[in-house]
Every structure is written in structure tokens, then in C-alpha cells.
């Protein structure tokens, strides 16, 4: 079956009327598509602009996790205090601070590891906390 409709004209002659989109419908469809394309382009641009920030946070989190693993693997129950160090990862220098904090229960200690990209710790990029138990 054809997509054309046959109608009787005013002069009595049969004419074929094509069914399709009008010019107005095409313009509206193009406007909708262009708005969607601009929105997607802006969203991708924002994501690309955030990549360095996400990369920095990811590396700092890895440094914090590495220091925390080392702290949790120590055999001795940690003494209360603070220790600072430096680690190189992905071609950058990272500065970490490990704090052992007393808790309300003497059998537990909280370990807090903070990581910064400067030696003065003006901006903490990542921080992790964990607890250790003294079985004695």
C-alpha cells in the first residue's frame, strides 16, 4: 500500500496528496536537536575541565590508603602522636600526616591520615580514618 492518499479535487480530477513533514515541523525538530547537542557539548566540556581535579584527588586518596595500610600492618599498638612524611606518586610529591588519636576506650586508637600537595598542609586533598584494637 502506498503512503499517498488519493483525493478528489474541486475540479473533479483525482490528485495524489503526499503525506510528510511540513517545513514548520522540520524547523521545530532541528531546534530540539540543536538544543540537545549544545547541552551535551557543554556537559562534556565541564567533565573534561574537572579531570585534573579528579586525578589529583585520586592520587591523594591512593597515597592516604598506602599510608593507612602501612599503619594498620604495624604489629605494635600505636602510641598517641603525630608523624609526617613525603611520598612520590605519579611524578608528584605528596605530603602526608598520620595522627594517632586517643579514643574513649583505651583499647582502641583512631588513625587519621591526611594528604596534601604542599608541605605546609594548607589544603588537604584527601583524608582517611581507621581504628585499631589492642587485644592485650
Order of helices and strands: EEHEEEE
Q: Could you name the CATH class? A: Alpha Beta
- Say what the CATH topology is: Pantoate--beta-alanine Ligase, Chain: A,domain 2
Structural class: alpha+beta
Residue share in β-strands: 35-45%
What does this structure look like?
It is a single chain. This protein is of the alpha+beta class and 136 residues long. It has one domain: GSPII I/J protein-like (Pantoate--beta-alanine Ligase, Chain: A,domain 2, 2-Layer Sandwich), CATH 3.30.1300. 38% of the residues lie in helices and 36% in strands. The protein contains one helix and six strands; from the N terminus they run ββαββββ. Strands 3-4-5-6 form a four-stranded antiparallel sheet, covered by helices on one side. It has a two-stranded antiparallel sheet with strand order 1-2. β5 and β6 form a beta hairpin. It is elongated and about 105 Å long. The termini are far apart.
Summarize this structure briefly.
With 136 residues, the chain is of the alpha+beta class. The chain has one helix and six strands.
Topology:
Layout: E1 4-8, E2 14-18, H1 23-73, E3 81-89, E4 92-102, E5 108-116, E6 124-133
Antiparallel strand pairs: 1-2, 3-4, 4-5, 5-6
Amino acid at each position: 500500500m502506498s503512503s499517498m492518499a488519493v483525493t478528489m479535487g474541486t475540479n473533479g480530477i483525482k490528485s495524489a496528496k503526499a503525506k510528510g513533514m511540513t517545513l514548520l515541523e522540520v524547523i521545530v525538530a532541528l531546534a530540539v536537536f540543536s538544543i540537545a547537542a549544545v547541552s551535551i557539548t557543554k556537559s562534556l566540556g565541564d567533565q573534561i575541565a574537572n579531570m585534573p581535579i579528579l586525578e589529583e584527588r585520586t592520587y591523594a586518596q591512593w597515597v592516604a590508603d598506602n599510608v593507612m595500610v602501612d599503619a594498620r600492618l604495624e604489629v605494635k599498638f600505636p602510641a598517641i602522636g603525630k608523624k609526617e612524611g613525603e611520598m612520590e606518586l605519579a611524578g608528584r610529591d605528596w605530603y602526608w600526616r598520620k595522627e594517632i588519636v586517643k579514643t574513649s576506650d583505651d583499647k582502641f586508637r583512631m588513625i587519621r591520615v591526611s594528604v596534601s600537595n604542599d608541605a605546609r598542609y594548607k589544603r588537604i586533598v584527601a583524608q582517611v580514618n581507621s581504628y585499631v584494637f589492642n587485644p592485650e
